[in-house]
Design a protein that fits this description.
450 residues; 4-stranded mixed β-sheet; 4-stranded antiparallel β-sheet; 17 helices
Length: 450
């Protein structure tokens, strides 16, 4: 088996994303042998969905996202479970991380908005939190932090506003706000309460006739209503998608078989922070398992992709606007992996123990064959480093008043050492509330252990 990570296998794709050469990125995906394998079909469709979205081919984008959506909902086959137990999870069908599944709905919602299909966009925005709750319930992880998505509620509110349903917009913004403050602070999963959300909440309360709530939020945020009142006839929701989400690499963890509390055997790392019960207690006195005293476990870990741009200021009609982070995808990715660490580690240890049992039994009959099986088993221990690699590191948003028709936006992107990159984009404002998600996928290479 190749020891290269998924990131290594698609380096050309990353270069094309970095250069904003999306047509070439599309060809990279179609020509990559690794992505043509059946077990990687979800990844192939996710990457194609995103690349077609970047090329503004929204129908084609949704075609691939819909395929990925259906594949991710498929039940895990018995053969896949057996492969995960006996070989490793990297050889099973990829079904996507929780946050990857819900970001499919985010991009589908945007595609529908660009196609002026507001009802379909609303359905996709609603599906995000429904899907998260379903995933958490299936996995029996009631303590999961990522059970709801604050930006999903915000997106729902924005779509409701586009449909002139201010009552439901207010409810959605309030739901988002309550997620940010639920832990006695203003931060939710690595993102601070956006200033724009405060303003949207106040204005939605006012437009719904909830004047008491409007005044209460004005007081809470210390924002006098006359300073934030929405008087624009046309507005643009500007979503900034910056950088790339972290990528996975393999981390080798050495575990030692020791006595735990009550004399039970557990696998523990050198620091004692990892403690996994011995998965086969009835075999713990088997002398043939003496080489289980120390085992190597290959586990995936996320490595950040350093940002090239660290700030953005947008100027329109003499006014400046700064998008505020609303979704920290890099933070959510790491949290998502940490939450399933114990479950995944237990499965890996069980797999290694089963291999050792088979190796010990074979050695009794044929020493050389048993040794070869041990070598093969060690080589097969490989972490699953697959992930959707064209996702941004974070989402940020703001609202900009525009005139109907063509509008010019001047963008100032802050790069390395404070360097400023000036860009100009033209927005053709056709609706009362327009949308644009602006991607800056430029990035520095991740620092991988080699």
């Amino acid at each position: 088996m190749s020891c290269r990570t998924y990131y290594d296998k698609v380096l050309g794709y990353h270069k094309d994303l970095n250069d904003a050469n999306y047509k070439a990125a599309e060809k990279d995906i179609l020509n990559t042998k690794f992505l043509k394998r059946n077990r990687n079909e979800v990844l192939r469709n996710l990457e194609l969905g995103k690349v077609f979205h970047l090329q503004q081919q929204y129908d084609s984008s949704n075609f691939y996202f819909n395929r990925a959506d259906l594949l991710m909902e498929e039940k895990t086959a018995v053969a896949d479970v057996s492969t995960a137990v006996l070989v490793n999870s990297a050889m099973t069908k990829y079904h996507g991380e929780d946050f990857e599944r819900v970001l499919v709905n985010y991009y589908k919602a945007l595609n529908y908005l660009y196609l002026n299909m507001n009802e379909d966009a609303l359905v996709e925005a609603k599906r995000i939190n429904i899907r998260l709750n379903e995933l958490a319930d299936k996995q029996l992880m009631q303590g999961k932090k990522y059970r709801s998505d604050a930006f999903a509620h915000t997106l729902q509110g924005l779509v409701y506003e586009r449909m002139n349903d201010y009552n439901n917009a207010f409810i959605s913004y309030r739901n988002a706000y309550e997620l940010y403050i639920k832990d006695n602070g203003n931060e939710y999963l690595g993102a601070m309460l956006p200033e724009q959300l405060k303003i949207d909440l106040i204005n939605a309360a006012h437009k719904s006739g909830f004047y008491a709530e409007r005044d209460e939020y004005c007081k809470t945020f210390n924002m006098p209503f006359n300073t934030v009142k929405d008087t624009a006839k046309q507005e643009l929701v500007f979503i900034w998608e910056n950088g790339l989400a972290p990528v996975k690499e393999q981390e080798d963890i050495m575990l030692f078989l020791v006595k735990g509390v009550g004399g039970d055997l557990v696998f523990s790392d050198k620091s004692g922070t990892i403690n996994i019960p011995f998965p086969l207690p009835d075999k713990k006195n088997d002398p043939s398992l003496a080489d289980l005293n120390v085992i190597r476990v290959a586990f995936p870990k996320y490595v950040d992709v350093p940002l090239y741009f660290t700030g953005l200021t947008i100027t329109s009609n003499g006014q400046s606007y700064t998008p505020g982070m609303a979704e920290n995808i890099a933070f959510i990715a790491r949290t998502n992996l940490q939450e399933r660490f114990l479950k995944e580690m237990t499965l890996m240890i069980s797999r290694i123990v089963l291999k050792k049992l088979a190796e010990a039994q074979l050695k009794k009959e044929n020493e050389a064959a048993g040794a070869l099986l041990g070598i093969a088993g060690a080589l097969a221990e490989k972490a699953d480093t697959r992930n959707w690699q064209s996702l941004p590191s974070f989402l940020a948003y703001t609202r900009i008043p525009l005139s109907k028709g063509e509008n010019t936006l001047n963008l100032q992107l802050r790069g390395p050492n404070g360097q400023i990159s000036n860009r100009t984009i033209t927005v053709n404002q056709r609706s009362t509330l327009g949308f644009i998600n602006y991607s800056t996928l430029q990035h520095f290479p991740p620092v991988l252990d080699r």
